[in-house]
Design brief:
The chain is α+β, with helices and mostly antiparallel strands and 357 residues long. The protein has helices at residues 30-38, 53-56, 108-125, 146-154, 189-196, 246-249, 254-257, 280-294, 308-313, 321-326, and strands at 22-25, 47-50, 63-70, 73-83, 86-94, 136-141, 158-169, 180-182, 212-216, 222-237, 265-275, 298-304, 329-337. It has two domains: 11-141, 3-Layer(aba) Sandwich (Aminopeptidase), CATH 3.40.630; 164-356, Aminopeptidase, CATH 3.40.630. Strand 9 and strand 10 form a beta hairpin.
């Protein structure tokens, strides 16, 4: 089972003959944070900005920031979270490389930059270039987002799994909830590893920091548990046919304005969700309890759609009013790897809440 191992040496990567415009750092600069805070994510579906990037980037696990800089300003960036032999692509923002349609052919300087980025991916996957072997990169992209598709197609990433973005919303809290909140990783580690330890890209660096939510039966047995991460976005557009006007009218609709606050939208992201017997009723009780304890009204659950728990629950849980409006949106898990790595599609991918917010 994989564990997080920090890698504090970036010296090998300076030997890759990148142009001087590229800067490699382990700490985010103010210019990089300014770039990431200014980026509106999404193209053809939802449009949103992360409002807690400044805090989130500080706790990224073993980050390596590859940034295009000129005159003290950041024009593009890829941040990698280095997780043993796999690197997660955490932040991808290249305004100078992607203009208009992400499918336009790059020419001149942008074509040269793209070639260097391609070579960077190649060199990292070549174990001869460094002491710590890396055998795969992975990322999540919106299949309707042309800029994300540009990254996937130009740098050789392949879709390996589909991730469902499942909303769970409640306008009122369940004041009689039996769900308990605590920070004891050791109280859930056995259940979590048993359920997810063999999944693709499972790791525990962010997971074990909690908080955790536990539901017990009348005999004191734990029948459900999960971790949840709180996030805040500014929402300019929601997915779906009505997504363009919903953020404008939601503040005037009593049943929705508790769930969606477009200018400062706070929600919870569950992960490592374990439910005894994959029982949908228990999952519903767990999620309602988490919302009650945190005084929030919305969960966004990014989950591999092949996970047995999700397959059992997707048509048997009352997901709430937002689900009825926008349905379930999908993201692609994309991977680029060398010949030492094989993605096993027979087991689901683990989805870390930190990676989506």
């Amino acid at each position: 089972m994989p564990y997080f191992i920090p890698n504090n040496s970036i010296q090998p990567y300076f030997q890759m003959n990148l142009s001087p415009i590229f800067k490699l750092r382990e700490e985010a600069t103010p210019a990089l944070i300014d770039l990431l805070e200014s980026v509106t994510l999404g193209t053809n579906g939802a449009h949103y900005r992360h409002l807690d990037t400044r805090e989130r980037i500080r706790i990224a696990d073993s980050p390596l920031h590859l940034t295009i800089e000129r005159n003290g300003r950041a024009y593009g960036n890829i941040t990698f979270c280095r997780r043993e032999k796999t690197w997660y692509v955490r932040y991808f923002a290249f305004d100078t490389l992607v203009q208009g349609s992400g499918r336009k052919k790059s020419q001149g300087k942008t074509g040269k930059l793209k070639q260097e980025l391609q070579q960077f991916f190649d060199d990292i996957l070549d174990s001869k270039q460094q002491s710590d072997e890396v055998n795969s990169f992975y990322a999540y992209i919106d299949p309707n987002n042309e800029k994300s598709l540009w990254m996937s197609e130009n740098f050789g990433f392949e879709t390996k799994a589909t991730i469902a973005t499942q909303t769970f919303s409640r306008t009122k809290w369940n004041k009689r909830t039996k769900v308990e909140r605590h920070n004891n990783w050791h109280g859930v580690v056995e259940l979590t590893r048993s359920a997810y330890g063999n999944h693709q890209y499972y790791f525990e660096h962010h997971l074990k920091q909690g908080p955790f939510y536990i539901l017990k039966d009348n005999d004191g047995e734990v029948i459900a548990c999960a971790k949840a991460t709180k996030a805040t976005w500014a929402i300019e557009r929601l997915p779906g046919k009505m997504g363009g006007w919903l953020p404008k009218v939601i503040p005037f609709i009593p049943s929705l304005r508790k769930i969606i606050r477009p200018n400062k939208h706070t929600f919870l992201v569950p992960e490592a969700v374990v439910v005894k017997g994959d029982n949908p009723a228990i999952l519903k009780e767990l999620f309602e309890g988490i919302l009650t304890l945190e005084k929030e009204h919305l969960l966004l659950w990014w989950v591999d759609e092949t996970l047995p728990l999700y397959q059992s629950a997707k048509n048997n849980v009352r997901w709430g009013i937002l689900h009825r409006l926008i349905g379930v949106n999908k993201a692609n898990l994309v991977v680029r790897h060398n010949n030492k790595f094989e993605y096993d599609k027979s087991v689901p991918a683990y989805t870390c809440g930190f990676d989506f917010v």
